[in-house]
Amino acid sequence: MNQNLNTTGIAKSAVARLHADGGTTSLNDDVVVEEPLEIRIGNRPFVVTMRTPGNDEELAAGFMTTEGFTHSKSDFKEIDRCRMASHPENTIRVRMSTGVKLNKIESLRYGAISASCGVCGKTSIESIRNSYPDIQSDCKIERATLLSLPDRLRKSQVVFEKTGGLHSSGLFDKAGNLLCLREDVGRHNALDKVIGFALLNDIWPLENHILMVSGRVSFEIIQKALAARIPIVAAVSAPSSLAISVARECGITLVGFLRNPTMNVYSHPHRISG
Q1: What is the pLDDT, as a whole number, of residue 102?
Q2: How far out from the chain centre does Cα 161 lie?
Q3: 3: buried, middle or exposed (CB in 10 Å: 19+, 13-18, 0-12)?
Q4: What is the pTM assigned to this prediction?
Q5: If both were cysteines, with which of 35, 184, 187, 217 could 239 make a disulfide (CB 3.0 to 4.6 Å apart)?
Q6: Residues noted as catalytic
Q7: DSSP sequence for 62-113
């Protein structure tokens, strides 16, 4: 199990705690860190995202893959800190393997930016269906095992335990074993870190795995799960209408409000047994 024990995402902040009786206590509180991460392709700036520091190489690999710029570990020649940057701690440099067309990556990037303006839900579904085949996985998980995942995820949220201000994503196998957990101020970043971990450690594709997220499920979460070929996505909170539509169309089992002893299954319930 590769739990996220990285506590670099924690900072101290002075706070005045106000009490019901009118009293005030001054103390130092643990707060989550949020800083920009610049991802460069070679020496060229590519994208900047706000994230919680830690596992930045995984974040870069996961982002590049779930956004459709890359498809396998072999696409990457090297992912490391850009030591020449003014802030290397917040800069990751990605060197692509020979044969990966950088101009195609650039066109995909700008195409995604222009296509994001004014599109409807139906167009979004059609777009990702053209990019990724439907998931046909025969992966199944026992109902009791699925119901146990929120507690297993919560017990491993080290930084959340100290700050109360992070999202988390966990990757599980069919037996309910936690393979990787990552936390981040951005829910999409937490997922990209998990997917990047799987990609870089040759746990790929993820056709026999379960994704558990700590919050709600948006379209973006399902889109990234589809890119990683994850057949079962579960959350302790609610999914959006578009997330449900995409899951139904693309073959993903989507579970919401997963809180023992009940759950809501919005699509493809055949993967839950028992």
Answers
A1: 76
A2: 19
A3: middle
A4: 0.89
A5: 217
A6: 117
A7: HHHHHTTS--SGGGEEEEEE-TTSSSGGGEEEEEEPTT--HHHHHHHHHHHH
